């Protein structure tokens, strides 16, 4: 099949979309493919994660060491059903893959850089180390940890970021003298830059609250703050042991480079350039800021991506891509979400129609 004029990105969700029963609709509709895949998953991990996914309880599924491999595996399950049951060919229908934080592993599997078994083992062990990092941080500081999204007006995001960095001691201060009475706020980092109007802070919740007070009193900003569904401060220095684990672990993993299609790094917001680049950035992703919005802008502006196919549990779609690039006038463009079998059927029909029209031009 010839390459399309309409460039397509395949993207995957990260931590927080897990829910008990998230594979049930796929198991009910495609029992053979799903059963084979879930048996494979359990065999790789050496325990019955599929039962936790189907039956819970929530307290077990929400543990970092279970939630992360579960989300990644269900995302790959959905893609495998798309490929095996509907004939979706990633190599001919997709130009690039990317994943939000944890979703980067799903994207690397989809693009052919990592085998599913290797990725699943990496994710499980990395998540175990991350859970240990969180427990240690809480014990040492006596403070609650987690993540908080800050939402502001789109034209204020750059100013908000600069001010946050100044309060954290990461930038040259342009604030008035009043702010200098307080030392830089420690153990808080910018974990994600998700969109033109949202960033995520990670670290001590108490210190994030202190930062919010300073932003409102001295920084000229009043963002809406939303506590995220995570008790762990991902993408912060607290996770340094996880980064160290990844540095060692990836050396023992078979990485295919080049793979089927390019994959975008969360850290660089650019395609992985080599095996060594992939190893380095996959390790740094544990502690560095996820530059998601930079990745979306790069694909939209530099690579001409106009069709975005989101695959995974939860409502994968416009929220991860953004209204600015998701609304396009090109036929077949925009954001296509594949979160249930009906959406998969509709997407496949739409792809066939669009590609037929492109070939006919």
UniProtKB/TrEMBL annotation:
Domain Malonyl-CoA:ACP transacylase (MAT): 11-344
Keywords annotated in UniProt: Acyltransferase, Hydrolase, Transferase
EC number(s) stated in the UniProt entry for this protein: 2.3.1.39
InterPro entries: Ac_transferase_dom_sf (IPR001227), Acyl_transferase_dom (IPR014043), Acyl_Trfase/lysoPLipase (IPR016035), Mal-CoA-ACP_Trans/PKS_FabD (IPR050858), Malonyl_transacylase_ACP-bd (IPR016036)
Record GO biological process: fatty acid biosynthetic process
Single GO molecular function: [acyl-carrier-protein] S-malonyltransferase activity
Top class in the EC scheme: transferase
Xref: Gene3D superfamilies: Malonyl-CoA ACP transacylase, ACP-binding (3.30.70.250), Malonyl-Coenzyme A Acyl Carrier Protein, domain 2 (3.40.366.10)
Gene Ontology terms: cellular component: mitochondrion
Domain of life according to the entry: Eukaryota
Catalytic activity: holo-[ACP] + malonyl-CoA = malonyl-[ACP] + CoA
Record-given protein name: [acyl-carrier-protein] S-malonyltransferase
Lineage, broadest ranks: Eukaryota, Fungi, Dikarya, Ascomycota, Pezizomycotina
